[in-house]
Amino acid sequence: MKRSSTMRILVVDDEAPARRKVLRFLRQESDVQVVGEADSGETAVAAIHKIRPDLVFLDVQMPVHDGFSVIESIGPEKMPPVVFITAHDQYALRAFEVHAFDYLLKPFSEDRFKQALHRAREHHALAGGSLASRLAEMLLALQKQRNYPDRVLVEDNARAYFVSVRGISWIEADGNYILLHCDSKTHTLRSTMENLQNSLDPKLFVRINRSSILRLDAIQELLPWFHGEYKVILKDKTELRWTRRYIGQRPELLKLP
User: Fold this and answer.
1) Is 37 a domain residue?
2) Engineering a disulfide at 13: which of 7, 24, 59, 149 sits with its beta carbon 3.0 to 4.6 angstroms away?
3) Would you say 150 and 164 are in contact if contact means Cβ atoms under 8 Å apart?
4) Is a pLDDT exceeding 70 seen at residue 127?
5) Within this chain, do residues 139 and 30 fall inside the same structural domain, yes or no?
């Protein structure tokens, strides 16, 4: 099935010079239309939902919400075709090659950019393909390769010390701070939920609503609640709500064996 010959492109990079470089190269092409640019993962997710571009040039290394988090937020099945932009990252580069995704390794030349755009044109000309399954497989492969820290540095007045992530029962947002609930003690950390979530092993932790992350083996019981949500009871008797939006981000956790 043929598509429109003009590709609608979104450019995502947190570094303004890198975005300007991509935009400069795109301005030399007659069959593309730049429909937006984003300087963070959060704005990229909003732009993809609103604009629905045909192609995204997506920076991998962005603070808080990186390129892979963008794909996870959109969902592999709804994500437009992607050309990844990355600094050297051996795990990411290997994943791109194995799962047949094109990428631009910074600093890239105009010729290399044109090669990537040419391949994107070929994909755009013929609709369909296995993009969703390849994205899902790539994310899974990267997740397996990634090393997650086993402790978190917290500060208490003039003291600083480490807290084992396996000692954290659940995590709560509190304004500009994060509360780490560890048995009978609570530690305060200056961070964001997105930043902390990205640093935690998803095999151990899950985010269940905007303000709560919990350790999976701290759960004692799940009770079906209203509108497809769950009431979560932890082993320390804390009661939390697992909302539909966040169930949708990790549906595999609630599948019966």
Assistant:
1) yes
2) 59
3) yes
4) no
5) yes
